[in-house]
Amino acid sequence: MRHGKRGRKLGRTCSHRAALRRNLMQGLFLSPDLRICTTLAKAKEVKPHVEKMITLARNKTLHTYRRALRLIPHEGAVARLFGEIAPPFARSGRPGGYTRILKRAARRLGDNGQTAFLEIIREEADSEKKRSRRFRLKRKTKEEPVPKEKSEAKTADENDE
Predict the structure, then answer these.
(1) Judgement on whether residues 60 and 106 belong to the same structural domain of the protein
(2) CA-to-CA separations, 42 to 38, 47, 71, 125, 161, in angstroms, rounded
(3) Domain residue limits at 92
(4) Which helix (H) or strand (E) holds 158?
(5) What is the spatial distance between Cα 148 and Cα 40, in angstroms, rounded to a whole number?
């Protein structure tokens, strides 16, 4: 029985799985549109690790930078993670949920495996939508009707002057 042995083996040895995880994270952080296409099982396996890396990079210190380099030994990927990807999440205070998995209808040629996109959510676009909705709601609450008694009293005072 596999009690206490969580995670997917993905048909690989332990060291091969670790290398696969590093390469998928590196590819995701270096891709221009912050999106990679992989199998659904691989995307589900690497997603928590990507989330932890972004959470680690939100606190930008030398110690966290070196910890990230231990997990992904690619200077360019870690530099982009700390420089471009994590700061919007740190500013917005988003409590996780930095990635999403989108299943593709197209299956992989050869073995008909189910494929999916693993992508990092762009915080600027999402926060603008929420912010605009929030401001619309605030405007509605601020536009309360003024009681007629006060408005008539004001006009009477203005006419006297």
Answers:
(1) yes
(2) 7, 8, 17, 27, 77
(3) 1-121
(4) helix 148-160
(5) 63
Helices 62-71 and 40-58: crossing angle in degrees, nearest 10, is: 160
Is 103:40 a contact under the CB 8 Å cutoff?
yes
Burial class of residue 75 in the structure, from the number of CB atoms within 10 Å of its CB (0-12 exposed, 13-18 middle, 19+ buried): exposed
Determine the Cα–Cα distance for residues 46 and 17; give it in Å rounded to an integer: 10
98 and 41 together in one domain: yes
pLDDT in tens, 68-125: 999 999 999 999 999 999 999 999 989 999 999 999 999 999 999 999 999 999 876 5
Q: What whole-number distance in Å separates Cα of residue 73 and Cα of residue 103?
A: 29
- For tokens 């997917």, the residue is 8
Q: Looking at the structure, do residues 100 and 140 belong to the same domain, yes or no?
A: no
* CA 4-97-11 angle, 5° bins: 40
Amino acid at site 70 = R
